[in-house]
Amino acid sequence: MNPVAGQTAGRDRPLDLFVEQLTHIDCGVLDTELGLIGRTWLVDVVLTGRRDEHGMLFDFGPAKREIKAEIDALVDHRLLVPLRAPGLSRHGDKLSLTTADGARIDYEGPETAIATLDAECVTPELLEDWLTEHLRTLLPTNIDGLQLTLYEESIPDAHYHYCHGLRTHDGNCQRMGHGHRCRVGVEIDDQDRPDIARDWAARWQGIYIGEQSDLATTDDAGRHHFAYTAPQGNFALAIDAARCVVLDGPPTVENVADHIAGELALSHPGKRVAVRAYEGVGKGAIARRGD
Ligand SMILES: Nc1nc2c(c(=O)[nH]1)N=C([C@H](O)[C@H](O)COP(=O)(O)OP(=O)(O)OP(=O)(O)O)CN2
């Protein structure tokens, strides 16, 4: 058979196009069991369809750009709210969650900072289905299948989850209550110390990192009330003070790394301390003391 004619005829055969780690979703999640928890999910995408006249299902350039942009717009740097979660109530911009252990979290933020889902609990599987429904309309007509897979970065050792908001950030990081799942590494006198990193990570599961100047008050129930106004709107959060770390400056990853290094320098006097803190996947800051 003429090979060119064969390729043209073969265009009717469906096949899959995949993009691994097309994007990362960094978000906060309200959860009846866990309270406010920072999450980072990697996203793989598989498209199923038939080749067009260029021999492609969907040019990687626009495919990656358009799908990532839509996922970012829908959930990245937002607080994900499962509207049927036990203990959750919503009045306008105000959300309140009483967790399974009786702690109460109050949150207020503009519509652009949250994503509401008709669910009791936010899971990667639920988000895969929800995002798939929203993304279908973007796809060219030669594509009839879309499969998203959300999963956590494989981190063999220490990692923690936190939420925060960077009031002065000109992008979506200004949204209070978005979060991350991050690895952390510690060296003392140039020796890797996974045991110390693990101890630190164990204390930082599900924390909120705030800035002192955004801490308006602490109430009689022991909750910190953070509040600020950023370009996207007014944000407020009331949450158990025991789940908060309050920094002198903005909760950037540089300041987080420096905070951990400072604490470790106090408990390891005379030693060289290095902390490698991540923010989500593949990026972060290294802070050193005692050099
Ligand atoms: N030097 C720093 N820059 C930024 C910090 C920081 O701590 N130090 N933090 C942020 C935000 O908190 C944000 O959560 C991280 O943003 P990023 O992952 O870059 O977000 P994007 O969605 O824009 O990037 P993608 O590559 O699309 O995931 C911002 N900057």
From TrEMBL:
<dbReference type="InterPro" id="IPR007115">
    <property type="entry name" value="6-PTP_synth/QueD"/>
</dbReference>
<dbReference type="Pfam" id="PF01242">
    <property type="entry name" value="PTPS"/>
</dbReference>
<protein>
    <recommendedName>
        <fullName>6-carboxy-5,6,7,8-tetrahydropterin synthase</fullName>
        <ecNumber>4.1.2.50</ecNumber>
    </recommendedName>
</protein>
<comment type="similarity">
    <text>Belongs to the PTPS family. QueD subfamily.</text>
</comment>
<dbReference type="InterPro" id="IPR038418">
    <property type="entry name" value="6-PTP_synth/QueD_sf"/>
</dbReference>
<comment type="pathway">
    <text>Purine metabolism; 7-cyano-7-deazaguanine biosynthesis.</text>
</comment>
